[in-house]
Amino acid sequence: MLRFKSLGSGSTGNATLVEATGLWPTRLLVDCGLGIRQLSMRLAEAGLCEADIDGIFITHEHSDHIGCAHKFALRHRVPVWMSRGTSEGIGRPDFDGLLHTARDGQAIELGNLQFTPFTVPHDAREPLQLTCTDGASKLGLLTDLGHATSHLLAHLAQCHALLLECNHDADLLDQSSYPPFLKRRVAGMYGHLSNAAAGEIARSVRHGGLRQLVAAHLSQQNNRPELARQAMLDALGSSTDIEVADAGAGTRWLAV
Fold this sequence. Notes:
Elements: E1 2-8, E2 15-20, E3 26-30, H1 36-45, E4 55-57, H2 63-66, H3 69-76, E5 80-82, H4 84-89, E6 99-101, E7 108-110, E8 113-119, E9 128-133, E10 138-142, H5 150-156, E11 161-165, H6 170-175, H7 180-187, H8 195-205, E12 212-216, H9 225-236, E13 241-244, E14 254-255
Parallel strand pairs: 3-4, 4-5, 5-6, 10-11, 11-12, 12-13
Antiparallel strand pairs: 1-2, 1-14, 2-3, 7-8, 8-9, 9-10
Helix pairs in contact: 8-9
């Protein structure tokens, strides 16, 4: 069985656990954008400890995603995957042999979990998002991008669960106190998804087996949970279970 849990989702820090259960569970930490003490606390709240993490995947170099990845990996001897561009974006630190290069479309095997990175349009050096599978169920993780491409939609096809960025409501962003340059960056082609844009992605990949969707990476200034939830309901209807990830608490464990 495949299950996942957001440990926190937003500009203050992002981290998601993906677990392929079984006799020997495999656990992947997707992004590590928290302080190391905060991460340890949230792992404990999830019923885990640092030794339970089998691998780390970093989507891109922004601080709310990279966080304590380097320190955590070295301290606990956990392998890390990221793109070459992401490594360059954080100054190519020495991971003491633990770093592996992730590439668009190349599946990676980790225990009884397989994850496949894919490129997305975002203002980072070489951003990747990913899908994960245990061979029976498929989970798509998609945050931090400015617009949908046919390439990413193809990778999200036939997912049974999605964690999908719903960063902002267009009207709230327009009315916010953000300076004009930041509004343009957030709403731009390489910024972040609005609720409406996320709804279009959800609608595009909708199928009868899509059972779970988590609206993630909500802006605390420019969005509201009820607005994100309604956008996903409008796109998918009531046949899909919809949750909204909390910036601090994330989500409960969710089965795919």
